[in-house]
Amino acid sequence: MLRNIFDKGTDLNMGKPVVITFANQKGGVGKTTSAVNIAAAVGAMGYKVLLCDLDPQGNATSGVGVSKKALKYSAYDALTGACDPCLAVYTTSFKNLFILPSTIDLAGAEIELIEMEKREYAYKRIIEAVGEDFDFVFTDCPPSLGMLTVNALSAADGVVIPMQCEYFALEGLSQLMISIKKVKQLYNRDLTITGILITMYNGRLNLSAQVLEEIKKYYADKLFSTAVARNVKLTEAPSFGEPIYYYDKYSKGSLAYTEIAKELVDRVL
Prior knowledge:
Blueprint: E1 18-22, H1 31-44, E2 49-53, H2 59-63, H3 75-80, E3 90-91, E4 97-100, H4 109-114, H5 122-130, E5 136-140, H6 147-155, E6 158-163, H7 167-186, E7 192-198, H8 206-219, H9 232-236, H10 244-247, H11 252-268
Parallel strand pairs: 1-5, 1-6, 2-4, 2-5, 6-7
Antiparallel strand pairs: 3-4
Helix pairs in contact: 1-11, 5-6
């Protein structure tokens, strides 16, 4: 059952959170899967985590077992000022994991934000309102470089870039790096690249190995040491509304994301 985070009895830590945005304008790269599963793994490590779903598709929301039909408020309401941001953050069934959920209404926010003063910082204002109660804030972005993604990058300390080992992924990575540089110059001078995360990896394919080597040439210091291989359990878990850590803790996908979560924490703390 959904419960607002400020209902009596919720024990939360106080302090400034580390804000990490998961971004890639290319769809189908495991961005939502990575955001959900890293958030759950970091929560299981004992940190208080807020997972923010800024994708109108709302896959991160359903991926942690939250029914969109049961929501009174969502990220759309918080972004547009229709509600106090605190009212749009809910508990989940998983240890230390909270959610700012999304619905299809969020698609309209791209247009509404255009009319808003300092529109690039609408999401940052949400983080400032609720973030002190968390250790980490992880943001899942839509597969685009529109206003929602710009908002997420403007509020972030760092960016995690999930990507597949494919030729077009390299082109997309170059474009994304240019966009991140522009956001850094215009809106968030403290923005850094936390890491590049290889997903759906198949080491038996020559192309995968070649693309990985190409990435290492330019971004070796940014690559996470663990790549996420294609895994049936990872694709099954969202249909049950569970992060892989809770769906099958000892599956290859769960073990990979647990290692990545540990490395991420080591990098940013």
